[in-house]
Amino acid sequence: MSVPQQKYDIAIIGAGACGMTAAITAARRGASVCLIEGGARVGTKILKTGNGKCNLSHAPIEGDEYRGSDSKRVAGFLNRFGVDETLEFFKSIGLITREKDGYIYPYSEMASSVLDVLRFAVAASGAEVICSAKATAISGSDGDYAVLCKIDPDGNGNSKSAKSEIHAKKVILCTGGCADPVSGSDGSGIRIAENLGLNVLKPLPALVKVKAANSKDMAVCAGVRSKGVVSVYVGNGASDIASGANPVSYDRGEIQFTKDGLSGIPVFNVSRYISRALDEGDSVRIRLDLCPEMNEDELAFFITDHIRNGYGNAGISIDEALSGIQNKKLNTYILKTIGVKPSAPAADIGRDEISRYAHALKALDFNIENTYGFEQAQVTSGGVDLNEVDDNLQAVRYPGMYLAGELLDVDGPCGGYNLQWAWTSGYIAGNSAASDL
Ligand SMILES: Cc1cc2nc3c(=O)[nH]c(=O)nc-3n(C[C@H](O)[C@H](O)[C@H](O)COP(=O)(O)OP(=O)(O)OC[C@H]3O[C@@H](n4cnc5c(N)ncnc54)[C@H](O)[C@@H]3O)c2cc1C
């Protein structure tokens, strides 16, 4: 594969959600654009999003849902190109959408529709796409940037790679973070930025499952799903909780119990705090409230009453008597953690044991040992400090260089927020670079 020697107006590094949006936007403004992609194909991660359906945005998005080094600035970017503008953009390239409970999907509910329309729009815009070209460094300055690339001649990694330089007046670096590295976002773009002297907040996995300490007892409830509240406590663990400390984060929704820890959307949404706290050497504890609609006393009263006047004398076991309250497997786990044999006759269970069960249902604690790694993570917490870019996403220290997408230290919760950041920042970077030629 040969790389054209012409000099482009704009070289965009990384053909993910962000890079393709930037390319279409800049080329539509008349710029000659070269879109450089390390993988053999563009936009592969998009196909995996939203379980193959691509939850491409959310309605509404205010901006304060995002986290990172200067996340309060995100609202300002969204004011310039937010959810409405994104949906218009997609309409302009032939994609209609549908919304359910705020979650926005392509009308086809197929992520491939999103990738297809982006690919076709990139081609129609006249932007040149160079795949199997991994950027390793950027040199030069405004008006003449050079992107050093390692070219994989066959696109399959089997042949000896060649080096090449692509020249452009402006450059947009949008190589993603480190999450899901098989899709190409392996952190190499963040290293390019770091080598240029830009400040980088350590990339850590976010929107990811967590591992509990002493998880061997959890095998019994692996696969169980239960709705509840997930709260994260950082620091001295139990003593912090006991002294009434506020959690550093919490979320409500369907919790999934795994063989070695916890998963599900509310766990994903708090996981960025867990990654960062553990990385700083803090201890982390998750507390689950598996019955947020009732308080502990109400629960204990209900159970006592039920055992006394209900099935208590029917010769059933305590885990059977509690089956109207929680999943049986989860009850088995909870009863074991409070030292009650699940097979014990319900009639023999005293007030103290019932109080302990009610307390555990409202405050089931897990010491968190770790999160899963980038291979399992949906996004990256950390990346290039947002303070390194101005309101046009231009690098403060490198005029003519723009940074966008997950590469920047901005991360959102589940629900379309992260792709929205990719569209928003891709549009702003592409538009700003093209208008500055
Ligand atoms: C399984 C999964 C499901 C997800 N589901 C959703 C969802 O439903 N909704 C949502 O909002 N978000 C979702 N996300 C997150 C979302 O996909 C990302 O935040 C978003 O794709 C980031 O876009 P980006 O363009 O910045 O980076 P990426 O999509 O990571 O794209 C970066 C591109 O740059 C290329 N690249 C990397 N390094 C180089 C280099 N050195 N040279 C050249 N090219 C390079 C990569 O190959 C890649 O194509 C999901 C993520 C995963 C992993």
Plain-language structure description:
This protein has 437 residues and is α+β, with helices and mostly antiparallel strands. It has two domains: 7-203 and 383-435, FAD/NAD(P)-binding domain, CATH 3.50.50; 209-372, no CATH class. 30% of the residues lie in helices and 26% in strands. The chain contains twelve helices and 20 strands. It has helices spanning 17-28, 74-80, 83-92, 111-125, 188-195, 238-242, 265-279, 296-311, 318-321, 328-337, 351-362, 417-435; strands at 7-13, 33-36, 57-58, 67-68, 97-100, 103-106, 128-130, 133-141, 144-151, 162-173, 200-206, 210-212, 225-234, 249-257, 261-263, 284-289, 364-371, 379-384, 401-403, 410-411. Strands 1, 2, 7, 8, 9, 10 and 19 form a seven-stranded mixed β-sheet that branches. It has a six-stranded antiparallel β-barrel with strand order 12-15-14-13-16-17. It has a three-stranded antiparallel β-sheet with strand order 3-6-5. Helix 1 (17-28) runs parallel beside helix 4 and helix 1 runs parallel beside helix 12 (417-435). The longest helix is centred in the last third of the chain and has 19 residues, at 417-435. It starts with 6 loop residues before the first strand and ends with a helix. 48% of the residues are buried. The model has no long low-confidence stretch (mean pLDDT 94). Flavin-adenine dinucleotide is lined by residues 13-19, 36-39, 45, 48-50, 54-55, 134-135, 174-176, 179-180, 184-185, 188-189, 378-379, 405-406, 416-419, 422.
